[in-house]
TrEMBL record:
Name of a matching Pfam family: Alpha-amylase
Name by which UniProt lists this protein: Malto-oligosyltrehalose synthase
Cited InterPro entries: GH, GH13_cat_dom, Trehalose_TreY
Family annotation (CDD domains): AmyAc_MTSase
Organism placement in taxonomy: Bacteria, Pseudomonadati, Pseudomonadota, Gammaproteobacteria, Enterobacterales
Keyword Protease: no
Cross-referenced SUPFAM superfamilies: (Trans)glycosidases
Keywords: Isomerase
Length: 837
């Protein structure tokens, strides 16, 4: 298997085509990239901006160049010596009439060839929750009629521009008569004879007959656990791998599958041993990827969480929390907040999925003569779902693996002892179902319960934490990242080193990402916001002053001020992270551009919090009041604030730029495969999607890379435009291709510094029989920005690194090192990366 030395993620669509990507290949090669890493390339919904709403997995999307454009890209990559990794989406497809498989299911119901390709409950009619109101209301309002489908000419139920096909038995031999139907009762009767039921989108959380992706009804779950479905959905994917066009696959949302391990085993068998496969899998702190999965690792969210151990000031983070809680006027109970968010998801957003589990449980209880009340079962089910600490377990029809069985018992015991403890008999019964301890007659239903429970805990966790809690708790937004936890109390470089050693042992070939299309903010915004932990009192004073200066813009509504203090804290911190390094307070055009991006983020943040507004029921009065506050902040007329904000932000910006180089150097040299997200080779100060999916200025990036002779750490402009970061990447990445075994398998050696600035140093080595690497990086520099050079500090070298001659990859200087390396006099802002062979 060829393991990538590095990857570069490109987002196709929204203007990015195969031919445009092919034109970037010389730049990627010059940067040192070994593999282009493509977002989904298969045909998606018309106008899709991301490609995860696939409508045909066996066609390359004509919107981005089709098969011919793809082949041209592959040829260009191969001529340049680069490989290709593609993002595949086995869990779901678009539940759209554009999707031929789905359309056939809508038209023919359970008689469709594809009826069991999707995860549909065929004990009832297929629910189509795409109406603005109930069917009866829309019919009465004249929004539903019978008309010929413009594409097929067949009679269809027309709802605005949508034409839902009628099942043949309901109109064949009487097409003209059906098309003449105008009486609402007759149309209702015709609708009742269909294998589907049109319904309001608002009813989807409670009453859905198909499994969806998270809570997105426009994406229907696919049953790839069925071999026939797998084969149908992977024809083109496997052709591309077997032909040599594609060298690697990134599996989207692997936890959504019924049996991830079996799917991955089948994929490995069909794709062959040489295909590089990674999975999008979010690991909780201390959780590990199952060792028996035939993959090279994850896409790297846990790597981001590890970086915070190195870059957050563990000694002062509690002061930041105290300042935040003082602002709130109360302490934050994170566990209570998490429970509230998860219970909201379980009882509202995923009520239908919970109801389906309840139905299975009651059926099993009846079969096994368990006298349990439905209410008690539902309460126990919700408590078990809410208490689950990881995304899912990996039970099969045979039951749970030992480690998951132990986890289940632990969780059940915590629920049993909790303040909201449910009926113990109901809880015990549910744990027995999960463990497979039921009668033979109930074993199939128990297996179905187990699978659906496991497919629900992941979305429940994701929507509760990433898409709710992260928008409610704002203490340190840099920590509110996919795979991490909000408001942890402890950070240490020692733990970082431990996690890197575990990474080397468990998944040395996993991707190491710092920005993705799904991260909550760009990597350099996060690097900047880490510095708040170094100066919490200073930050709190700034927020207090800014709040006071803009107090006149706070609107008093019936349900409280808009914005409340906690939201103000979030706004100022988010703005600090996203503020362009070169934006001046009197730059009206620049302020307007930032406002357009920032107001979109704020609207999303308010709705994701689900406190005073929501996606389902937006509170426009509240939202407009907060958005007006934001517009005031960024108004060129608000110079007093803008001047203060810009000046106060400067030390955070500069300390953040140092952090940026440190985290980049870690990504390039620590265990794992460095993944560069498009544009993040310079500065990525993006906000949450869709802001982070904007296309970078590739022409400017290419021009910047070619200015290598002009790069100077002493020139502040070269920090502010990101060229130092880009040049660091371009210098180190080629090394990974020259010495692959050093970076894949070389020992990871934590190093310690001595001296008065020891806590400001993060250092480690990589070594094998072929070569050695020493990496020495600055950390916690906020309060030392005025010190241009290192004070005396020594790095002791273990035997594997000592007694060698090294070259500094940044400066080019050579030196012989015996037992230690001295930092004294060096630029304290710059990484030191030393290579010996």
């Amino acid at each position: 298997m060829t393991i990538p030395a590095s990857t570069y993620r490109i987002q196709f669509r929204s203007g990015m085509t195969f031919d445009r990507a092919a034109a970037l290949v010389p730049y990627l090669k010059q940067l040192g990239i070994s593999h282009l890493y493509a977002s989904p390339i298969f045909t998606a919904l018309s106008g899709s901006t991301h490609g995860y709403d696939v409508i045909n997995a066996n066609e390359i999307d004509p919107a981005i160049g089709g098969r011919e454009g793809f082949d041209r890209l592959v040829k260009t990559l191969q001529q340049a010596g680069l490989g290709l990794i593609i993002d595949i989406v086995p869990n779901h497809m678009a539940s759209s009439l554009e999707n031929a498989w789905w359309r056939d299911v809508v038209e023919h119901g359970e008689n469709s060839r594809y009826a069991h390709h999707f995860d549909i409950d065929w004990s009832r009619r297929l629910t189509l929750p795409f109406l603005g109101d109930d069917f009866e209301v829309e019919l009465e309002n004249g929004a539903i009629a019978v008309k010929p489908d413009p594409q097929t000419g067949k009679p269809a139920l027309a709802y605005y521009e949508h034409f839902y096909p009628l099942t043949p038995a309901s109109w064949q031999d009487r097409a003209e008569a059906v098309l003449q139907l105008t009486d609402k009762a007759d149309i209702a009767a015709l609708h009742d004879s269909q294998p589907y039921r049109l319904m309001s989108w608002r009813d989807a959380p409670r009453d859905l007959s198909f499994r969806r992706f998270f809570e997105i009804t426009g994406l229907a779950g696919v049953r790839v656990e069925d071999k026939a479905v797998f084969d149908d959905a992977h024809q083109l994917i496997l052709e591309l791998v077997r032909s040599g066009a594609v060298q690697g696959l990134r599996v989207d949302h692997v936890d959504g599958l019924a049996d991830p391990k079996s799917y991955l085993e089948r994929l490995r068998q069909e794709a062959g041993p040489d295909c590089y496969i990674t999975v999008e899998k979010i690991l909780a702190k201390g959780e590990h990827l199952p060792a028996d999965w035939p993959v090279s690792g994850t896409t790297g969210y846990e790597f981001i969480a590890s970086l915070s151990e190195a870059l957050v000031d563990g000694k002062h983070i509690r002061q930041l929390r105290q300042a935040y809680e003082t602002l709130l006027g109360k302490p934050v109970d994170v566990q209570a907040e998490l429970r509230a968010a998860k219970m909201l998801m379980a009882t509202r957003n995923f009520a239908g999925e919970a109801t389906r589990l309840l139905q299975l449980a009651t059926t099993i209880a009846a079969a096994d003569n368990e006298p349990l009340e439905e209410k008690a079962l539902l309460t126990a089910l919700r408590e078990l779902l809410v208490a689950f600490p990881v995304y899912r377990t990996y039970g099969t029809t045979e039951g749970l693996p030992p480690e998951d069985a132990d986890l289940l018992l632990k969780v059940a015991d915590e629920v049993r002892q909790g303040v909201k403890a449910p009926d113990p008999e109901a809880l015990g019964f549910l744990t027995r179902i999960m463990a497979g301890e039921v009668s033979a007659a109930a074993s199939d239903d128990a297996a179905s319960f187990r699978t659906r429970f496991q497919q629900l805990t992941g979305p429940l966790m994701a929507k509760s934490v990433e898409d709710t809690l992260f928008f409610r708790l704002h203490m340190a937004l840099a920590l509110n990242e996919v795979g991490a936890e909000p408001m942890p109390d402890d950070f240490s470089p020692e733990r970082f080193h431990q996690e890197m050693q575990e990474r080397l042992a468990r998944q040395p070939d996993a991707l190491s990402g710092t920005s993705t299309h799904d991260t909550k903010r760009g990597e350099d915004a996060r690097a900047r916001l880490y510095t708040l932990s170094e100066a919490p009192e200073r930050w709190a004073e700034c927020v207090s002053r800014w709040r006071q200066g803009n107090q006149s813009q706070v609107v008093q509504l019936k349900d409280g001020p808009a914005p409340k203090p906690a939201v103000e804290w979030m706004l100022y911190q988010s703005l600090a992270g996203a503020w362009p390094t070169d934006l001046a307070p009197d730059d009206a055009e620049g302020l307007k551009a930032l406002e357009e991006r920032f107001t979109g983020f704020v609207e999303k943040a308010l709705r994701e919090a689900k406190l005073r507004t929501d996606w389902a029921d937006s509170n426009e009065t509240y939202e407009n009041a907060v958005l007006d506050y934001v517009r005031h902040l960024l108004s060129p007329d608000n110079q007093a604030f803008l001047q203060d904000f810009t000046a106060s932000l400067q030390p955070f910006i500069h300390a953040g730029l140092v952090n940026s180089l440190t985290q980049t150097a870690i990504k390039l040299t620590a265990p794992g495969v460095p993944d560069i997200y498009q544009g993040s080779e310079t500065l990525d100060l993006s906000l949450v999607d869709p802001d982070n999916r904007r296309e970078p200025d590739f022409c400017a990036l290419e021009q910047l890379l070619n200015q290598v002779e002009q790069v100077d750490p002493a020139n502040e402009a070269h920090w502010l435009d990101g060229r130092l970061k880009q040049q660091l990447i371009a210098k180190v990445l080629p090394l990974r291709q020259q010495l692959p075994d050093l970076f894949r398998k070389g020992d990871y050696l934590p190093l310690s510094a001595t001296g008065q600035q020891a806590e400001n140093v993060l250092a480690f080595g990589r070594a094998n029989d072929e070569a050695a690497l020493i990496v020495i990086l600055p950390r916690l520099v906020f309060n030392r920005l005025q010190e241009a050079h290192w004070a005396p500090a020594e790095i002791a070298l273990p035997e594997a690194l000592a007694g060698r001659r090294y070259i500094n990859l940044i400066s080019g200087a050579e030196s012989a090192l015996e037992t230690s390396f001295s930092l004294a006099g060096g630029d304290r802002r710059m990484p030191v990366i030393l290579l010996s062979r």
